[in-house]
Amino acid sequence: MENETAPQRPQVPSHSPEPKWTGQSLPPIKQGKGTEAMLTAGTVLIGVLKDRRDLEILRKKSWYRIPLSRAPKKKADYLAFYEPGRAGRRGIIRYYAGVKSSETAKRIELIPEEPRHPMAGEDYLKIGLSQVKKLKKPVKNANGMRISFAFTSFRKLLSAGTVAELLGVNPLEDLTASGLKKRKTIFSREYTVSLKNGRRYRLDFAFFRKNGKLDVECDGEKWHSAKKQRFLDKRRDRILKRRGWKVLRFGEKEITGDMDKCLDKITRKLKTFPSQSSAAPRAG
User: Fold this and answer.
1) For 220-253, how does the pLDDT look when each residue is reduced to its tens digit (9 = 90+)?
2) What are the CA-CA distances from residue 45 to residues 4, 123, 140, 242 (Å)?
3) What's the pTM value of the predicted model, to 2 decimals?
4) Closest CA to 46 of 167, 158, 137
5) Fold designation for 171-271
6) Lowest-confidence segment of 83-92, 197-206, 232-241 by average pLDDT
7) Are 21 and 125 in contact (CB under 8 A)?
8) Cβ atoms 282, 7 nearer than 8 A
9) Which of 11, 116, 137, 221 can bridge 194 by disulfide, Cβ–Cβ 3.0-4.6 Å?
């Protein structure tokens, strides 16, 4: 449930008082004939259910836990729950619930049957939930994306068919991922870099080498051509470079027009780093 072994850790300042993360009042509901009720607004935090025990806690006790050190700062009206794939089955999101309350508690207080767990004495955010509901159309992780904490809208949760659609991953990334796989290039997709001020950047593709790391971004023409977005992209790249990242950006026309040229550029950049590392580190 709390994704205790996840490689990505959103950084937040240490907390001594109880955090004020109680969820905002729910927005009005508009009923649609023959469809599930749609919200005009509503923020959804996607959490991870590690195993069946965590799923049972969710369904029977209506609460969810997050290590306080990894709890996102942003408020949410709803939680949706990602179940990782097992035995050849892709991961899936089937359940969601409204946020009612929150409080801090030690893990040992929440799960007393595991007194020797490495995080038994750690502070957790216990989030109280309203009735847990099942999506009429589950959201499937068709591309095998790695899932950690992420935010989306309630409207998208009800309409998305895949995790890529839910998180707004564009088709350009799918094309790039396919090309990289054909070349047997090791990469981490949708990797999150967390900063000390609480800001987080989600990288389209991250490549790790023993003494270097590369971020590759796939920029859709409509979104990234806007003046404000170009400014934000440049600021983001400067921040990442100060943290030791190299950054490559490819536009929509580059990717759709000559994928091999883009892949060759990635390969050349990676060759400037020493030997390859097969796995992403625990932090960005």
Assistant:
1) 776 667 788 889 899 999 999 999 999 999 998 8
2) 17, 20, 16, 29
3) 0.56
4) 167
5) Endonuclease; Chain A (3.40.960)
6) 83-92
7) yes
8) yes
9) 11
Farthest-apart Cα atoms in the chain, separation: 59
Q: Which residue type is seen at 185?
A: T
Residue 18: predicted pLDDT: 33
Residue type, 87: A
Task: For residues 75 and 86, give the distance between their C-alpha atoms in angstroms, rounded to a whole number.
Answer: 30
- Whose structure tokens read 């969601």? 96
Of the CA atoms within 13 Å of residue 201, those in its CB half-sphere come to 25
Q: How many CB atoms lie within 10 A of CB 59?
A: 13
Domain boundaries, the chain: 29-162, 171-271
Q: In what order do the strands lie in the sheet with 245-251?
A: 188-194, 200-209, 212-219, 245-251
Strands 150-153 and 123-129: unpaired
Please report, in angstroms and rounded to a whole number, the separation of the first and last CA atoms in the chain. Answer: 22
pLDDT in tens, 160-194: 998 888 987 767 888 899 999 999 999 998 898 98
Q: Is the pLDDT of residue 127 over 70?
A: yes
| Cβ atoms of 222 and 171 closer than 8 Å | no
212 forms beta bridges with 209
- CATH entry 1.10.3470 includes domain 29-162: no
